[in-house]
Amino acid sequence: KAAKTQPSSPLDKAEFKAAIVKHLHCTLGTDENKANNHAWWKATCAAIQAQVLEGLRKTQKSHYFNDTRAVHYFSAEFLMGRLLSNNLQNLGLFDVASGALKELGVEITDIMEEEPDMALGNGGLGRLAACFIDSLATMELPAIGYGIHYEHGLFRQEIKSGAQIERPDSWRDYGNPWEICRPESIQEVPLFGYVETKYGESGRIQKEWHPGSIVKGIPWDIPVVGYEGKTVNVLRLWQSDSSDYFNWDVFNAGGYVDAQRENVQAETISKVLYPNDETEAGKELRLIQQYFFCSCSLKDIIRRYKRAHGDDWSRFADQVVIQLNDTHPAIAIPELMRILVDRAELDWDQAWGISTKVFAYTNHTLLPEALEKWPARMIEKILPRHLEIIYEINHRFMAEVDKKWPSDNRIKAKLSIIEEGNEKMVRMGHLSVIGSFAVNGVAEMHSRLVKSDLFPEFDALWPGKLTNVTNGITPRRWLKACNPELSKLIDKKIGSDWPKDLYKLEALEKYADNKAFQKQFMQVKLNNKQLLADEIRESLDIEVDVNAIFDVQIKRLHEYKRQHLNLLHIMALYRRLLENPDYDMVPRVFIFGAKAAPGYKLAKDIIYAINKVADKINNDPRVNNKIKVVFLPNYRVSLAEKMIPASDVSEQISTAGKEASGTGNMKLALNGAITVGTLDGANVEIAEEVGDDNIFIFGLTVEEVHELKEKGYKPYDYYYRDPEIKAVLDWLETDYFTPGKPGALVSIKQSLLDHGDQYMVLADFRSYCDAQIAIDEAYRDKARWAKMAIINTAKMGKFTSDRSIKDYVERIWKLSPCKIEN
Ligand code: 26Y
């Protein structure tokens, strides 16, 4: 048992000051007079890191002594954002730090701006992983996040003459004060080469993989501090490096090995995050990245298990559960099988019994272009033994399918891990479902569609295996830290325990009609809008009126998310104003934040179009006080933290059935923004929570989308029947928004007419406009709007990631919290 010592008391202001100054002097080699904000930031991080590491040490000791079962969250992406304010909040030291810095003549908000975002993810999936590890630590659950230590995270976006330019992100260029390198836990990862078949004395066939090269995995640990709790878990990220020693060995072994040998520059494996979100690229390096971090992580887990249990594998599945964040880490399944069968020499059934009790898989998408498939030949080249194992898994699975549906080749072809065709492909989704004991979607509607449309036969074969866990967000970052004014108002009204029990916010509902509270609530919103307006002025030199409706759409740029539906509506409003200068509308500021995948042409065209339309409208005195359009460049976690508290309207307008869940929708509603949205993803559940009067739902339902597709959707019908649609689409073809460059925006029109409008933008346009008119009317009634905003905040309890984690724990992981002893 852990030795009992005195509980360590948190720093007080004087101690904090002393710690900061000490680090200025001793860690950074500067002093109070010379230090710039960057140095102050680093010194402040260092000052709390001591306490963080103390918590980490105690946590690891407690987990070790209690031999706890733990969840291992495998994710190719962790979109952590900044950590200083989060860690201060979670340690309960924010006010102490802010006071200490003030006495040193430094504003904490200024130094927080020095921290580069840790942008090791694309969007929703990566941020979800970050929220989940926050909740896991807060709930004192034994958990490790495993991922990749990308040298460059998601690209930095610049806008030049309206177009997106990608620049490398270098988040660690001046050192990262949070991460700790753990050379003692380096792993080696084999790649390429060939498989030798040996026949043992007992007649057992033994496979030996002779890799063509070996790379090194270096672990970097980021402490994950739980809120108020004592638990400090870790996020372990693997950096690749060359393992020259081995490769010399191979080199010396002779020519025939050389023939099998492939050269990956080992360091390139963890060099850069692939910026594609929801489009599978099938790039060799991506597969190597996936295998690299899975292999390192599994070996790390096994090393830890063996320390406690030696070679006895019988308890492995009791101690270890691995959650696969989408199929990106699915290669871990054959890797564990390889370790158990080839290295530990368990027989197949035993190994499969263990493996299928360890893995659980979360699906995040139904979009066919996002479902990962790898050419069998590519796997064979990089991971020859894994391809054999995948075939063996599939062979045995096909036998099971045959029992259920005898001699049905159609169903076999449909369920097989291998897609036969011109080129044999390995379907990672199928592998994940077959190799896991639980599979979940990320919102009620999405999980229903996973069962009915994506994997219906798997659901029939294994009833109960496919399930739902609705996503959530951490209220510590997404309310307490990013919206301090609202948090303090809530604290005053209902007490301060809501960050750990978000259903407590329901107590606000009874003040929804209270005039005084409405006034306070909306005053906070106004103040937040002022801060954002300042930001907009500074970064874009655009003046916006804080009394206008701040209408916000922030998410990756994707056709299915339909930023262009928003844009067409803006153009329609603009046109109405030009035709009738007295057109009656509440002034609106339309604010966008979005990155497009660098290779996604139409997405980039939409960004360009938004910027061009913005230029025109913002400089047109005829409409100037009614509409402003703002595209804030380089959308990222830290920018979201500024935009979300300042939003009145939250745009969640994806084609029904396409957005698995959405999590931005939850963050905005939590901060009192009203959703305009389709019945898609978690919007459905948000509508259930807040009630029909407090959300603006529009557009086709999933069923209607299906029906319309069935009967044949003809976008031209809408074009010819709705003069406003025709006018705005034709407008795109002129040079009105792109003087001297007619046709510069025509690709959008083409996608909506000639290319069939896959996402039914035109079908939903009119209903979207109507919803916008309803919003306009609602906003005019100040009391009504305030009430809606308050109810939105009050009813977000369900969407804390603590609830998501509770669902995972009870239904899938079966974990217990572990108290941390001093
Ligand atoms: C295969 C590779 C190119 C790829 C890389 C990143 C594929 C997908 C992704 C990212 C997907 C993603 O972010 N999905 C989002 O996950 C969120 C968390 O569950 C959902 O809320 C959101 O609806 C979904 O689009």
Automatic annotation (TrEMBL):
Its cofactor is pyridoxal 5'-phosphate. The modification N6-(pyridoxal phosphate)lysine is found at residue 667. Its EC number is 2.4.1.1. It is an enzyme of class 2 (transferase). PROSITE patterns: PHOSPHORYLASE (PS00102). The keyword Glycosyltransferase applies. Coiled coil: none annotated. It catalyses: [(1->4)-alpha-D-glucosyl](n) + phosphate = [(1->4)-alpha-D-glucosyl](n-1) + alpha-D-glucose 1-phosphate. One of its GO terms (molecular function) is glycogen phosphorylase activity. One of its GO terms (cellular component) is cytoplasm. It comes from the Bacteria. Belongs to the glycogen phosphorylase family. Allosteric enzyme that catalyzes the rate-limiting step in glycogen catabolism, the phosphorolytic cleavage of glycogen to produce glucose-1-phosphate, and plays a central role in maintaining cellular and organismal glucose homeostasis. This is Alpha-1,4 glucan phosphorylase. The lineage of its organism: Bacteria, Pseudomonadati, Pseudomonadota, Gammaproteobacteria, Alteromonadales.
